[in-house]
Amino acid sequence: IGAGPAGLMAAEVLAEAGVAVTVYDRMPSAGRKLLLAGRGGLNLTHSEGLDRLLLRYGPARPALEPAIRSFDPARLVAWADGLGAETFVGSSGRVFPKQLKASPLLRAWLVRLNRLGVRFALRHRWTGWSDDGTLRFDAEPGGLAASPVLGRPDAVVLALGGASWPRLGSDGGWVRILESAGVEVRALRPANCGCCIAWSEHVRARFAGAPLKRIALRIAETTVRGEAVVTRDGLEGGAVYALSAALREAIDRHGRAELVLDLRPDLAQDDLARRLSAPRGKQSTANALRKQAGLAPAAIALLRETGDATLPREPEALARRIKQLALTVTGLAGIERAISSAGGIAFSALDADFMLTARPGVFVAGEMLDWEAPT
What we know:
Layout: H1 5-16, E1 22-24, H2 32-38, E2 45-46, H3 50-55, H4 61-70, H5 73-82, E3 87-89, E4 94-97, H6 103-115, E5 119-121, E6 124-129, E7 135-139, E8 156-158, H7 174-180, E9 185-191, E10 195-196, H8 201-207, E11 211-219, E12 222-230, E13 234-236, H9 238-241, H10 244-254, E14 257-262, H11 269-276, H12 285-292, H13 297-303, H14 315-323, E15 325-329, E16 331-332, E17 340-345, E18 362-364
Parallel strand pairs: 1-5, 8-18
Antiparallel strand pairs: 2-4, 3-4, 6-7, 9-17, 10-13, 10-16, 11-12, 11-14, 12-13, 14-15
């Protein structure tokens, strides 16, 4: 139940083992969120060593490691190549299809599933179980059912996603159903998402959409290098997404979080101060910062957002602000536009094969599980 990547992969593995599989989904087509992810290039996995990759899963590593080792990044790349979606490793170490989009991979995948005999029942929303344990579905008008709804299958794999981008299908409606069945579910919350900062109207109006390239962001002892984009409500982008869990925890504890922005992480503070010591002549402060510090207009605008809007003239103080620009984060972007969601079914509610102990024969896969890692 669920025609996203987790459900389709489960269907493929089962069908290759000779099992008759029907995939149910409430949307009119499969893989809608996968297609959206493909607009950004479809980052499939990472080329770093497996032991390093496993560290990314944090507290969920013990529960997920056997599964990840059984289908590691090398096997994932080989699987994509087998669909004709040949991959390459980007400068960041991330692995992408050469076509940098999801649609060719998804089309080839659905052809493979069709050849394996997998059936699809689309526009069918799962609503739980009847008193006798029969699966219940609400079929919308025009629902494409390749076979009658299965009341008592031998096994059920739930792959209904989290609650991010609900308009694409994963609306978290399953939480109430499973909680009523005695399954522990931890609250679904935004992950890999932007953060909220109360910019001045000047920044909101002039610089929303402006990129911040080759920066570093830090919260507490964790630093991430990368890029970000100024939005009307805060910051988005890979470097922000990687810190979203730490930001969320700080906001939970203190009601806000301090995010430190380094606009020139490639330069030591003393070296930057020396550059800023060069005579400015008749240059404006903005021109001097552009030429001597290599800052874009958006970066210069952010320097005026904290503390005194008048920038310090002393090179050492100005360099310190460029390297240690403290921003107050008041919240995270809404879950409706988050890349993924934290929370989900507690691993304590599952056995080692990801079967619900409260519902024997019902297994869970994908974002429904309580794990989170950087994209």
